[in-house]
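Dear colleagues,

As part of the handover before I leave the project, I'm documenting each prediction I ran so the next person doesn't have to rerun anything. This entry is a single chain, and its sequence is reproduced below.
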Amino acid sequence: MATNMEAKKNNNNNIKRMYNTLRQQIEEEEYEDALNICGKILKLDPEDAKALKCKLVCMIYENQIEEACKLANKAREKISCEFELAYTYYRLNQLDKAFKVMESVGEKNSAMKQLYAQVLYRMENFSAAADAYEQVINDNTDYENYEVEKVELCTNLSASYGQANEPKKAIQVAENFDEEANYEIEFNRACALIAANDMANSIRALEKSEILARKHLEEEEDEEPDEIEKEVAIIKVQLGVVEQLKGNIESAKKLYNDALKTGTKKQSAVAVASSNLIALRKDHDMFDSYKKMKNVKVNKLSKSQMKMVHFNQALLLLHMGKDAELKKLVDSDKNDGNLNIVMAALLFKKDQNYKKCTQFLEKYYNNVKATADGIVQAKLSAAHVHILNGNLKEAVNILKNIPSLQNTPGTTATLIALYDRLGNNEKAKETMDQALENSKSSSHRVALMSSGALDDLNKRRYEAASKGFQDILKNASKLNLDEETQSIARAHYITSCVYVDSNIAMNESNNIPDFVSNESSKLSEEDLIRLEGNATGVKHDNKKVRSSSLDNVEEIKLDDKPTLTRKRNEKKIKKRRAKRREAYLAKMNAMDRYDEHNPIPTPDPERWIPRAMRKSTRRRVRRGEAHTSGGAQGSGYISEKDLRKLDAKARAEDEAKKIAAMKVIEEEKNVNRRGKRGKKKKKGRRR
């Protein structure tokens, strides 16, 4: 009995000593040694909850995630380890399981709330993630205990708002930390500015983010220059996106290539750069695009990124004619609408069979597992194919069976156009009336009313057109119309009233703003021309009328469609040319393709001669070396004699000389023949 008591006492003393050692090792972050100590403690006391929890945490720190996940599942009944279990699921990318574990927890502490927000972000539920981060930041009682800075939480919050299509909120969050901003939150601000279409400020934010990133990596992380370039590659990719959106294709390509050359391991940067390069190159350099496509590891991307990469890959495989690989890619995700549309395009391209193509699309959009966006895209594609094949009724039936697009301006306009082609004007009018009745958005209502009135005006239904434009002008305040839109609508109204009641047209013309007044001084010459040209029924003889003044009008013809004939204003033409030249030179200067000291390079006088035959590139022929025969460009050297054969003028001269020489020879022959005929042979005398 005494022996058992002594043994138990010794075990307790040993455990105490081990806990002291364990505390010291954890403070010094020696987690591997701490893990061994935890194992020894658990051998002495298998029910020790603290040692078990400590072992679990040390395994996570040592990146033994799978083993930690198994241990957490076993120890869940003995100790409270929901956070550690959810975290291991999160690290193993088993997001559904992590979410389920955290949902089972009643009251969450700050660490659990933050992990919950991160899981929601990874599950691409960005609005819910933003709400969760807001809750963590507002409940600031204990998040500092977990060594989480507020700026880090706000960085994640701004990213969530940016992905949730709320760029204004994302910008506001980032700007609150302007002075103490890190490069990540500045990068998120730049992305939000891109979403808000503010390209100038987004470039400034990205440049600032790069400066902060380099400073942080050099001073705090002590990284090598090559590693720094790899880290900032994602900023270069985003700069490339901005240049691409601005239309600077070559600059975008250069930035994407520079980012890929760094060898960055950030798969999001590699995926965006490679995918965008494939899209920009289109059907050029397809083999290089194919190699870049193979380097993208899609398993490390988000679902939306993966879909976009797969879509670009499918388009590339379609253009390269790699049918087997394309079918394999489509089979990997049969519910992806984009991939199924590309597959339908392959069927159409290969067999030119409309029926096979539409049947394939119909099979997809009738599938229960198909996504909502995929169904809409597939139906629109099927309608397009039917229109190409002339099956307008089938196209109408498909468009009418897309609930999410009903009564929108685009669908309404397409249906009206199809009904017009089918000669069913009643259905066209019914479609417009139904769309106007069910329209909820004021912008949609304006677009529908304008398109309906313009359609009446183009079809010379002037009374209906005038009524439509009159309704628009009467409801201008309700529809929140700006001055420009009202001016255009009034111009159309006057045009239609000319054919209905000229007195109304004359009275209404007094309401047109005076373009010479101070109120319209903000309008440029191009704006005036556009406003004038928007009045349907008035066409100019010249396709592009540059002058907006009516002083140059020579003749006005009042036919069904009045026309205006104008004189050429040479001064204004020269002014415009000078402005265009300045704008063009500024653009060339920005692209480093213009030298002001040598604006017009001297053209090569031999530019029309094949390169191998030019004096500047032709090698000297050694004495005794025979010339090779000339031919097509790049076929070899050519002698002066053969070069003369290529000169049309020289050939004509040689031909003339030959003809002259032949004439001389012919004349000499004729003279000789006449001489022979004149001489008679003397006959001898008979004896």
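Residues 78 and 344 are 56 Å apart (CA to CA). Residues 1-106 form a domain with the Serine Threonine Protein Phosphatase 5, Tetratricopeptide repeat fold (CATH 1.25.40.10).

All the best with the project,
I.
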